[in-house]
Amino acid sequence: MNNIGITIYSCEHDEADMFRRLSPRFDVMPTIISDTVSESNAKLVPGNRCISVGHKSEVSEPTIVALKNAGVKYISTRSIGCDHIDVNAAERMGIAVGNVAYLPDGVADYTLMLMLMAIRNAKSIVRSAEKYDFRLNSTRGKELRDMTVGVLGTGRIGNAVIKRLQGFGCHVLAYDRDQKITADYAPLDELLQNSDIVTLHVPLGADTHHIIGHQQIESMKQGAFIVNTGRGALVDTDALIKALENGKLGGAALDVLEGEEGLFYFDCTGKPIDNHFLLKLQNMPNVIITPHVAYHTDGALWDSVEKTIGNCSDFERGLANG
Question: How many CB atoms within 10 Å of residue 213?
Fold first, then answer.
């Protein structure tokens, strides 16, 4: 089959270049749209049954209705998670939803970086150095080899994190409803009670929303750290802030945050910030915030674009064969 059409929404310049570079391999004709998908621009689909969206796009039921009316049959998100898409509405409308599983190395590397920065008080050290204050920090850093790290979720990213942690010689505990790999699995409450660092790599869903809340944090070790490169709503941020303020937790490193939509990926310098979670956390010396960038590598870009094109091509060929 030749000339399969895909409409790609919320496409940044480097993504657009990659789509144009890889599409000829699959006999695909990409239509590039920089804006996020919405009710108003769903009609820009030029007869294409497949569209691609980024993880920054909230694809709500009204948008899905507009896409259905435009003839869309398949939505491929350039992300592992689908929590930004109303999947139930898509199913009711007869629209299939697919994701891409890019290589986990970028996120795993970034997770380890955040862990090391958190336990070595990197935020305070860097801020002091920027002011030419080169005195030693009053709080000594910790060594990863002496710590127990609890990994929530042992899918591709969680597994990659565990493999990296093994090189540091620390003890690793794992939690997952589906014990996919060879690891030292433990019930969630046991993992929390025994871990010096807890890192989150489970998908966000109704059953994992606030998987780390007041009760879970209260059961954690005094002075433990939380690292989150998954989704912001995996952690009850109100509970997190209270535990940081009262000293229950030693620190946190967050690449994702509840309410990040409309903030992360935008230049907000000189603008009022109305996310009180972000304002409180940014002012804490033991909290590191980065704007959902763990995935942002050359390798992940190549993977996500190539697999998006492949998913759409396979879907179209499946329709043709059906």
Answer: 15
Residue-wise DSSP of 29-41: EEEE--SPP-TTT
Cβ-Cβ contacts under 8 Å for 319 (sequence gap 6 or more): 49, 73
Structural domains for the chain: 4-102+298-321 (3.40.50.720), 105-289 (3.40.50.720)
Residues 6+ apart with CB under 8 A from 276: none
Q: Provide block-wise average pLDDT over 10 residues at a time, the chain (322 residues).
A: 83 93 92 92 88 91 95 94 93 95 94 98 94 91 96 97 97 95 97 98 95 98 98 98 98 96 91 94 97 95 95 82 36
What letter does residue 209 receive in the DSSP assignment? T
**pLDDT at position 164:** 98
Tell me which residues are annotated as active site: 231, 260, 292
User: The pTM is what?
Assistant: 0.90
Rounded (5°) CA angle 208-181-302 = 75
Instruction: Name the CA dihedral angle for 265, 268, 272, 275, rounded to a multiple of 10 degrees.
Output: 20
Burial of 185 (0-12, 13-18, 19+ CB in 10 A): middle
The span from the CA of 68 to the CA of 106, in Å, is 35
